[in-house]
């Protein structure tokens, strides 16, 4: 009887994770749009540092969920972006955001590919 209960719990957990994954997938387009807007801010010297911090915050959130919903490469790219921005903003000014731009574009490409693959 205990095994049936464990199987039921496992099924409920799997169903919950599937719903979280579906919500995550449906949020990818909005996340890409947000990153695109942040890229525009990154190009302006007056807003590039705040854009970096906002990109970092979004990458941190993305990194946190990706492993749980089955997108490890996307999570790894988000983590790399987050770590690069941490070292960048701790360094000298003016900021060289070229690699942030490159990493973010790579991440968005991965997001689009993941969205296409999930459809």
Overview of this structure, please?
The protein has 119 residues and is mainly alpha-helical. It has one domain: HPT domain (Four Helix Bundle (Hemerythrin (Met), subunit A)), CATH 1.20.120. Helices cover 83% and strands 0% of the residues. The protein has 4 helices and no strands. Helix 1 packs antiparallel against helix 2 and helix 3 packs antiparallel against helix 4. The longest helix is centred in the N-terminal third of the chain and has 41 residues. It is elongated and about 60 Å long. The N and C termini lie far apart (38 Å).
Layout of helices and strands:
Blueprint: H1 2-42, H2 48-66, H3 72-89, H4 98-118
Note the main attributes of this structure.
single chain, 119 residues, mainly alpha, Four Helix Bundle (Hemerythrin (Met), subunit A), 4 helices, 83% helix
